Amino acid sequence: MGRTFYQYGDPAFSAPYIFLGSNADTSDLYMAVWTGVDFFFTDSYIPIPDNYFYWTIRYTDSTHTMDLALATSPDPDTLPTIFDTFAVDLSAVTFTIDTEMVGNGWSDFRFGYIGIFQSSLTLAQIHSQSLIKTPLVAALSFTPLANKDDVDDITVNGHDWIVSGSLLTAFGPFPATSVGPYTTSRLFTAPSAANSVSVTPNSSAWTNSAWFEIEASTDAAWILTGLIVTPDNHSAGDNYEVDVGVGAAASEVVVTTFSGSFLSKSADSPGVLQSTIPLDNIGVGVRVSVRLRKSGTTTFVWAVSAQFYKKPITGSFLTTAKPQKVYPEAATQTALTTGASIWGSSTYTQLVASTSADYVLVGVVVDTFSGNSGWEFDLSVGPALSEVVIATVRAYHTGIQFTDGPNFVPLSRPSDTIPSGSRISARTRSQIIIGSRQAFIGFVYIEKPL
């Protein structure tokens, strides 16, 4: 059993420290904090042999609490639980970086990685982090050990280990990296083995429809990966938004929003609206419903269905409990002028003067006009005349109104390039010159922290 997993302080334990380890000659585990004045500690836990096992210390500044999160199960898909917690205010405690140690001792327990993160992880994120070798969120330190049999024992218990290893990297900060998107879990649809839900739009532009139930009661928690949206008929040039809500009828709460556009009047595409970062915020035993609003005023029925995974999943990919948001919200997309020459960039058009939070860009919604023409759209940040392109997406107009929509371009990886206070603008270029005709753009994002 590892004696000292992580410690700030000094070998004599006189300065404040955080300790995770075991008592002398035992195979238990506990967490302790010495503030220099008071001593706090959790109950002791004895790991079960042959179980999947990891632990995490978390501190919540707003409530002045520390907890010890444990996962111990033969099944690696089992989420961790809070083993014990105590109240301690660390706001006035000064820690000095002296030692950082990991080792093996009793029960041949070994460690492979140390991670010290800049923000608290949810239990779901802790579980995802245990499955990958890169930091899920920004980390002060995230490093493998040079030797898994590591290292100094300064617990003064008379059982010093042989010093045989060290950390491979210095302190960060290190940026978060994308979680490798893989799973062997099955993808589901709702409704299952039935027609898509029929959604009747409101007859007023950009006014919410009624809610339409897509699942009466989930039999497991969902990770929502997207919607499939198809209108039976509609006015040319419909921009639209679809809310996903949970809760009883007349008490629905929006958990995320999707956006797109259709130009033609019939024979539309399947209309797949993919979540670049799937939503992990739909629990078990809840009612799931959708509602629609759009730029047109026709009331032809739309068909909507959902795609999702059931928890727990096997594998690991990045998810969020935060909703997708749309720009512009409940409004027609922003018009862009075209360039003066073939494939010549237009001037920039401002979309957002100053963002109110850090944005993670997950997709772009575009409308193009004129037949058989290719288009590019640049989305940029920065002041006027100093714009920096953060994403370029491609679109093509076939010139016939048979196959169309949803005109949503999901990013293959979410783009963390829009800090709070950013000015966002866009420009376009095309293979044809179409004078006064315009193209239109919007985007979908998630506010940080995820």
Strand content: 35-45%
Q: Count the domains.
A: 3
Largest sheet: 5 strands, antiparallel
* Helical content band: under 10%
Low-confidence stretches: 1-10, 97-110, 146-179
Count of DSSP E strands? 28
Gist?
By secondary structure, the chain is mainly beta. It contains one helix and 28 strands.
Task: List the main descriptive attributes of the protein structure presented here.
single chain, 450 residues, mainly beta, Jelly Rolls, 5-stranded antiparallel beta sheet, 1 helix, 41% strand, disordered N terminus
Describe the structure.
- With 450 residues, this protein is an all-beta fold.
- The protein folds into three domains: 1-177, no CATH class; 183-321, Jelly Rolls; 334-447, Jelly Rolls.
- It is built from one helix and 28 strands.
- The chain has one helix at 123-130, and strands spanning 17-21, 30-34, 39-41, 52-60, 65-73, 81-87, 113-117, 139-144, 182-183, 187-190, 197-199, 212-215, 222-231, 238-246, 253-262, 272-282, 288-294, 302-310, 315-316, 325-327, 334-336, 349-352, 359-367, 373-381, 388-397, 408-418, 424-430, 439-447.
- Strands 10, 11, 13, 16 and 18 form a five-stranded antiparallel sheet that branches.
- β1 (17-21) and β2 (30-34) form a beta hairpin.
- It is globular, with a radius of gyration of 27 Å.
- It starts with 16 loop residues before the first strand and ends with a strand.
